[in-house]
Amino acid sequence: MEYLWVKHLHVTCVVLSISLFALRGTLELTSQPWRQWRLLRVAPHLVDTLLLGSALWLAWRIGQYPFVDAWLTAKVLALLAYILLGMRALGRNTPQALRLPYFAGALLSVGYIVGVALTHSPSWGLS
Ligand code: HEM
Q1: Is the CB–ligand 1 distance for residue 50 below 6 Å?
Q2: Total-model pTM
Q3: Which of 30, 79, 92, 100 lies 20 to 30 angstroms, CA to CA, from 5?
């Protein structure tokens, strides 16, 4: 029961995190001053903290860990890529021409993570 509750929280944070990132990326690409909106500056930090906290709790509860179990290692490494590419996509000093490739890369990374999460496999169960 408790496990399912935290898993729902994790998945809700996933949806919010991707939506907030996609929104900020789109606003940045269209040169909208989104940093003026406090909600868009603060909410992603709260959501991402809950996302990671619930992830660690779930991993501990099922006794599977990054760098021990391949699917969780893949999730953590792709999460790192998502964070780094996302920071570049939204960074103040990023040249405008590079924003779209960084943005697309970040979305591909997080899409890959969702696939790994659903299949519990780094190759999405295709190998
Ligand atoms: C942006 C990053 C992440 C995304 C998009 C994501 C996505 C998801 C999704 C969609 C599920 C539900 C899967 C299902 O319905 O069976 C899930 C479950 C889970 N995630 Fe994540 N996750 C992320 C980060 C992490 C990280 C970093 C860890 C590990 C430390 C982690 C550990 C878990 C665990 C243990 C479950 C439960 C699996 C199960 O009950 O079968 N997640 N994740």
Answers
A1: no
A2: 0.94
A3: 79
What is the torsional sign of CA 48, 77, 80, 31? negative
- What are the domain boundaries of the chain? 2-119
pLDDT in tens, 31-83: 999 999 999 999 999 999 999 999 999 999 999 999 999 999 999 999 999 99
Residue 92 one-letter amino acid: R
Ligand 1 pocket residue status of 85, Cβ below 6 Å: no
Q: Does the beta carbon of 47 sit less than 6 angstroms from any atom of ligand 1? A: no
Q: What tokens does 6 get?
A: 């935290």
Residues 6+ apart with CB under 8 A from 23: 34, 40
Ligand 1 binding pocket includes 80 (Cβ within 6 Å): no
Q: What is the 117 CA–ligand 1 centroid distance (Å)?
A: 5
